[in-house]
């Protein structure tokens, strides 16, 4: 049984590729989807589709609308959501995606370091599972196949 996993979280490094590699090494039949990881494409998609906007606020709003549309479609098609919270970047998009997944009743795994237990306590309590590492998240998914 192949499952689709939406990987919510920052787009500034290759953590998604690392997750996919580990899942392959574990022989997990998973397909991964997620947000647009090309930062410039994500920031400029509104103007790329709708044309030049009258200012940065409008440019950001246009891009946000289209990125949110993309996220909603991919998340609704997903079987599981993994939301990775790290310490390096602000985590607004991750929190929004995790909240949306929980609202959609998607099985949700939150990955967060110990230092973020307090700020994420309410979100963690709404998720199905909260772990501290991506490896633990993959082990939770692996358990489905036992």
Automatic annotation (TrEMBL):
Q: Name one Pfam family in it.
A: Nuc_deoxyri_tr3
Q: Which InterPro entries match?
A: YtoQ_family_protein
Domain of life the protein comes from: Bacteria
Q: What is this protein called?
A: YtoQ family protein
